[in-house]
Amino acid sequence: MPITHQDQLNLLTDILSNHQVDCCGSVSECEQLERLVKSLMVNTNINENVKNILQEIYQYSQHGIQSSDLDRHIKSNQERLSEWINNMNHFS
């Protein structure tokens, strides 16, 4: 059974929240972010403001996957993580 776009947004926000709170994460979490963003970007029910945020999150996940120090990458994006989480909660 496929998950709804709201479930996908909730999962996306949960992963970002974990990165923000824990200041660490895994490559597989970044890959999951990437898959969620790709799926959400093609969904016509998603608010355009959210799509702009999703593009930023996609870049964040790409850099995380390629980073030689993922924890440092996450720590250096703490402010952006907070903004994304707040905005996702606001628009979704």
Summarize the structure.
By secondary structure, the chain is an all-alpha fold. Helix content is 79%, strand content 0%. 23% of the residues are buried.
Structural overview:
The chain has 92 residues and is mostly helical. It has one domain. Helices cover 79% and strands 0% of the residues. The protein has 5 helices and no strands. α1 runs antiparallel to α2 and α3 packs antiparallel against α5. The longest helix has 19 residues, at 48-66. It is globular. The two termini are 22 Å apart. The model has no long low-confidence stretch (mean pLDDT 93). It holds the Pfam family YtzH. This is YtzH-like protein. It comes from Bacillus methanolicus (strain MGA3 / ATCC 53907). InterPro entries: YtzH.
Helix/sheet category:
mainly alpha
The outline comes out as: globular
Number of domains: 1
Please tell me the overall pLDDT.
Answer: 93
Strand count, sense and barrel status of the largest sheet are: none
Number of helices: 5
Question: Whole-number radius of gyration?
Answer: 12 Å
> What share of the residues lie within helices?
over 70%
N-to-C SSE string, H for helix and E for strand: HHHHH
User: What are the low-pLDDT stretches, counting only 5+ consecutive residues below 50?
Assistant: none
- The counted number of beta strands is 0
Oligomer: single chain
Beta fraction? under 5%
* Separation, N- and C-terminal Cα atoms: 22 Å
